[in-house]
Amino acid sequence: MEQTDKQTKEALCWLRYILNPDTDLPTISDWLSLLVFAEKQALTGICLPENCPANLPKELLLQWIGYVQLIEQQNKLLNRRIEQLFTKLEEDGFQCCLLKGQGNATMYPSPLKRCSGDIDMWVNTDEQTAYNYVKALFPNEKETYKHIHFPYFSDASIDIHVTPLKFYSGLYSKRLQKWIKQNTAEQFKNTIRLLETDRDIYVPVGKFNAIYQMGHMLIHLFDEGLGLRQVVDYYYVLKCLDISDSERLEIAATINNLGMFRFAKAMMWIQSHVLGLPSECCVVEPDERRGKELLTDILECGNFGHHSQRYKGNKGFYLIGIIEAWRNIKLLSMAPREGTARVFSKARTAIKHLFIHINLKNSIASINNAIV
Fold it and tell me: For the chain: N or C, fewer Cβ within 10 A?
């Protein structure tokens, strides 16, 4: 944190205060910079001051309130869409479990102020059945490594998952899927009710989220980037985790078995030393050095890496790929096997695109020669 500028330090202090409102109110010298920070990290809603400080310009406050009202409206819409989606999928014979997102929001003091995202739905079936079902309704949809898009609503983005998480490392992928299979049944029994809805839905239990969402953050770290919204989600996952000491040790052992121990230690430093999570809520011991490295990357990337400097300017596909590969190499110490597997995966994709590009150029040249 020594490397961060004054505005960023103030923003992190404000976020810590928002998460721990019984602590002293921090001083903010530049409220516009704080709002920009909150927007970059998709924390606009939760960072709105409850009472207007003397140095917060009224126009800025009104603008901020307007943003939050839109966030609340979007959350209400998504809650209704999730309710309708559960009904649709269950009528069509699928067991469903909502992952992250609106389920995480229920752990917030003000659920409607959490900036929403996509709807991630875990269906308890095999991959072929799920993908055939989606393609029967939407033939043009293509599955990705992680999920398949399900454009059932025009105003809500849905991804269908047959497993909540996939790793790129062969070793840890097998261990992960075995662990998920062993714990699947419990996740389709745990119910909650989203705000302003009329039916219960299924969401993962806290112990499952403590491991699954750690892995989800790790995957995002090596993909486009990890933002503070996901980190704050995890803060509440840990804060709401009502388990025994032996269960906490079991979570730590599973995290270690899945190759996430170093990343988890870095994450615990951010959770405890930056966000103010009580030490007894941590699932492993914090690692300050790696924690600072991780925080630096999070602050640079923003939500899902959308604000990273590596995407600025007209760099082109291959230059961005090289920049991303170098960034991933610098982060390898967080999870060496998974990071290395992801670097090679991206390299294979880049090489594939290169050959397609070369073949396309050769085809165009052949056509031009034939015309001449």
Answer: C
Tokens of 65: 């309130």
Please state the three-class secondary structure of 46-111 as a single string.
CCCCCCCCCCCCHHHHHHHHHHHHHHHHHHHHHHHHHHHHHHHHHHCCCCEEEECHHHHHCCCCCH
**Could you tell me which residues are beta bridge partners of residue 291?**
none
The pair of structure tokens assigned to 312 is 């600025």
How much of the chain is helix, strand and coil, in % rounded to 5?
A: 60, 5, 35
CA distance to 58, 82, 108, 187, 332, per residue, from 198 (Å) = 38, 11, 20, 20, 46
- Is the CB of residue 318 less than 8 Å from the CB of residue 349? no
Residue 53 burial by Cβ neighbours in a 10 Å radius (0-12, 13-18, 19+) = exposed
Other CB atoms within 10 Å distance of the CB of residue 347: 12
Is 228 in contact with 270 (CB distance < 8 Å)?
no
Return the closest-CA partner of residue 110 out of 25, 50, 28.
Answer: 50
- Calpha distance 234→252 (Å, rounded): 15
- 292's enclosing H/E stretch is helix 288-301
